[in-house]
Write a structure and sequence with these properties.
Blueprint lengths: L6 H39 L8 H7 L2 H26 L1
Amino acid sequence: MRLISDKDLQLSIWDVYDQIEGFQDEFRAYYQSKNDMISQEVLSKQGKKDISPAMYDFLATGYPINLQKRGKEKLMELKGEVSKLEKAL
């Protein structure tokens, strides 16, 4: 960053990094939720908990599909931003 004198360009680069980091956080949260649901499912199958099938409930929310859609949209946005940055450099 110290080699780039254009402050607007620096801010654009930081914004792209920030968006990528935010999306990584969302994926980590997704996988943590999925892991939690799998754990509940295992406990219910072992008879240790009386709950409905947790993974069915997890999938029925549409969370995985919505995350995938948002991921594709965000990827397209970021590709556009990176393309602009490449042209600016």
